[in-house]
Amino acid sequence: MVVLTSLYGQTSNNFIQFIHLDSFCREHNIPFRNPRLKKYYNDYPNLRKAKLDYTGWQLFRPLKWLRMMNVLNFDDQEQRPAYREKLQLLRGRKLFCEGWFFRSIETVPKYRQLYQHLFDPAIDKQALRDKYLQRTSPDEVILALHIRRGDYKEFYNGVFYFEDDTYLEKISQFKASIGKPCKVIIFTNDDALDKELYIRTFGNVTISDNPVVADHYLMSQCDYILGPASSFTYWASYIGEKPFMHLLDKKDEVRLDRFRISDGSY
């Protein structure tokens, strides 16, 4: 049995960390438990039915400190193949693990429908669709724009932190590339965002002010997803099977041929 005892990062990272370990274990008939996901049961009730709990896992940290427990830490990106081999070699034994760099890129796409079920949110979806996803014409395209500020000012020395002029330019490039009427829904953690600037420039712009569980769902229902490199947009693309493009530099040109659907291998 494999037990994940520590979640990595924030919500989207937690989910991506889970699906790689869970899908690998399913594929190789290895029992897997992730008791830390319990905090998401209210938002995603199907997780509660997935039998992810593990009685007594709270003893993990004290025993770890005493070096009385076998712990595998996925903390080295270069060791990804070795981690997979380790899990198979130790099958039949109890293994506690933590960390970010476990990947099973072959199995995550295979179990996409299962995770769409497990992470089906307990929210009023119709209300969100009525408020945000109505189209003014049958051919109108809805673009989800993720404006990540806050921690991105320092993250990787701010390489993925873009000012408004960059986002305005990228919206214009997308509209030119799509060649159809376009509605923009902005998702942001910037409370001071100049929302009126975007509305004045493009007109058909809406700002989402929902909690993460609703924003994940809403973004996953848009036609295209655009934003800086982030697991948030990657997860929405994976779960909603909608094409996304990550801006890695302010000079990146937004074109339709650069969008793709996430396969879960982030």
Automatic annotation (TrEMBL):
Signal peptide span: none
Any one GO CC term of the record: membrane
GO biological process: carbohydrate metabolic process
Keyword annotations of the record: Glycosyltransferase, Transferase
Alphabetized InterPro entries for the sequence: Glyco_trans_11
One GO MF term: galactoside 2-alpha-L-fucosyltransferase activity
Protein name, entry field: Glycosyl transferase family 11
